[in-house]
Amino acid sequence: MSEATHRYTVEVEPEAHLAHVTLRLATAGLAAPVALTMPAWCPGSYLVRDYARHVRDLTVCDGDGAPRVPTKVDKSTWHVDPAGAAELVVRYAVYGHELTVRTNHIDASHAFLHGPATFVYAEAARGQPVEVRVRPPGDRGWRLATGLDGGAFGAAPGEDGAWLLRAPDVDALLDAPVHLGQVEEQTFEVAGVPFELAIWGERAAGGAFTVDQLVKDLGAIALDHARRAGGGEPDQPFARYTYLLMLSHEAYGGLAHRASSANLHTPQCLGTRKSYEGLLELLSHELFHAWNGKRIAPAALASFDYGREAYTRCLWVMEGLTSHYDRWALRTSGVISTRSFAEKVLDDWSRLLAIPGRRRQSLEDSSFDAWIKLYRPDESNLNTTVSYYLKGGLCALALDLEIRRRTEGARSLDDVLRLLWQRHGRTGRPHPEDLEPLFDEATGLGLADFFRRCVRGTDDPELVDELAAHGVALTAGHDPAQTTDGAVAVWLGVTTSGVRVTGVLDGSPAATAGVSPGDELCAIDRFRITSDGDARAALAARRPGDRLELALFRRHRLVLLSAEVGAAPPTRYELATVAEPTPAQAARFQAWMGEPLAAGQSLATVTTTSRWL
Prior knowledge:
- By secondary structure, this protein is of the alpha+beta class.
- The protein has 4 domains: 6-180, Immunoglobulin-like; 184-290, Neutral Protease Domain 2 (Neutral Protease, domain 2, Orthogonal Bundle), CATH 1.10.390.10; 338-478 and 571-611, Neutral Protease Domain 2 (Neutral Protease, domain 2, Orthogonal Bundle), CATH 1.10.390; 480-567, PDZ domain (Pdz3 Domain), CATH 2.30.42.10.
- It is 27% helix and 26% strand.
- It contains 16 helices and 31 strands.
- A hairpin with a 2-residue loop joins strand 27 and strand 28 (557-564).
- Helix 5 (315-332) packs across helix 9, helix 9 (390-406) packs parallel to helix 13 (463-469) and helix 10 crosses helix 11.
C-alpha cells in the first residue's frame, strides 16, 4: 500500500463520551480549496442522519502549526486553503452516546466508533490510502476489535501505545467500525478463513445455550453461506471476518460491512431457544450481506455521494433475499429444525397480512422510498407502506418454491444468487436495476408474472399455493380463545400501547367511526377501560354489527364516538404437512427440506390476537 494521504489518530475520553480525532492530510495534488467533509448517512441504513452535528471544536493548522481558517460551506463541509502547506492538521472531537449500530457510543465500559460518524475526510482524496492510530484510554485493559487491516485479535499496540490500522481508501475505512473495550474474544476458522467474535456487555446468568454452541453454529452457518455462493466449494469474499456483538437491555439491530458486522442484542440472547435462534438469524443476516449487498449491489450503492440519498429500486433484492437466506441457512446448515424454520415463516406471513399498506406500495417503490418511509415511520405507515425486508423475504421464499416446482428440483433461487455472485459480486460490476432478465437466465424460466405481480405490483406472494405443492398446508382461522362458548371473533381495527391508540387500520370499524392515532380509550359503553385487556373483555361478547359507544380523550378533551363492531380478520395461522401427500408433494418436500415428509403433522401455529384490538 502506498503512503497514506489521510493519517488519523483517535483517542477517546470515556466519561465525556468523546472521541478526539487528529487528521494529518497530505495536500499534494489537492486543488484549493480543500473540501473536508463528513458523511450524512451510511450504507446499509438509508436515512440522512447528518453525522456532522456531533462534531465540535474543529480547527485546522498547517504542518508547522500555523493556523488555517476552516470555512463551513454547508451542514457537513468545511473549505480550507492549503496554499504553501504540504500537510494540513485537522483536530476535532465527536460526541457519541447513542448505542446503535449506526452511531457512536462511548462510555466508561467501551467505545464503539462507527466510521461515518467519526471521520472527516477530504473528498478529493477519497480513493487514496488511509492510516488510523487508535489509542485506548490507559489502565482499563481494553481490547481492539475491527475488520481493518492491523486489527486482528491479539494485535499489539505500537510503542506509542496505539494500534496502527490501514485501509486502501476512505470508503474502506468508513465501512469498518472499530470497537474498544473489555470483550470476550472467540475465534474459529471456516474453510481456511479466520473468523472473530467479540462480545461486549454482560450476559444474563443461566440460559439454555452457551458461547461455545454459538461459535459452533456460526461456523456452520458461515460455511453454508460460502458453499451456496460457490456452488458447493466455499467462496468467501474476505481474508478475515469480525463479528462485533454488543449486549444491552432491549437492544436489537445489525449493520453489515465488507469484512465485519456490528450487532446489538439483549443480555438474554442465550437464554431460550427463541432468543438464541433470533441472535443466530441476526448474525447470519449481516454475514450474508458480505456477498449480497456489500458486493452484489446496484450502481446507486456501488458508487455514491455520502452527502445525499442514493436511490435504487433494488433494496428488495439486497434485503429481501438476505432476509430469506439468513434463516434458510440456519435450516440447511442443520442449526435449526424444520419446525423452527416453519415458525419463523409463519410469523412473518401473519405480520405481512396484517399490513394494509402492502396493497398500496410495491417492493420496488418500498425500496426507492426507504429514505422517507421505512426509516421515518409514522402512524400512517401501516396503511401506506410495506417493508422490503418482510415482504421481500417472503417473496424470495415463494419464488424459490416456484422455481423448484417448475423445474422439478433442477433449479432453485440458489442459481439466481450464484449468477449474481459470479457475474457481479466477484467482479465488482454493479448489477442492473432491472433484474428480471438475470432471474430468467439463472432459472431457465420466464418469471415475468412474478415480477409484474409481486415486485412491480402489490400482490401477495403465492406462498400458500407453492407450499401446498411441496406438501405443506398454510391455513388461517381464529384464535380459539376468541370463539369459545359460541362467541364470534370481532374487532375495532386499532393498534394500541396500553389504552393509547397507536394506529388505525384502513377500512376498519375504528376508521369508519373516526378514531385517530393518539386517542386514549377510557370507556366502552360507559364501562371504564384501563388496559387493552379491559377493551378485549368488553368486545368479547359482541357480534359483528353490534354498536357501542367509545369514550376517549383527544388532546385532553373527552370525545364520544359510535362504532359498529366488525368481524375480525384471521387471528390464527397454521402450517401443517398434508394428511395424504401425493408422490410429487413428498418428493418436493424431501428435496426442499432434506428430510422425509411426515404426513399430517402440525409444524407451527401463530396467534395474532394481541397485535390489534
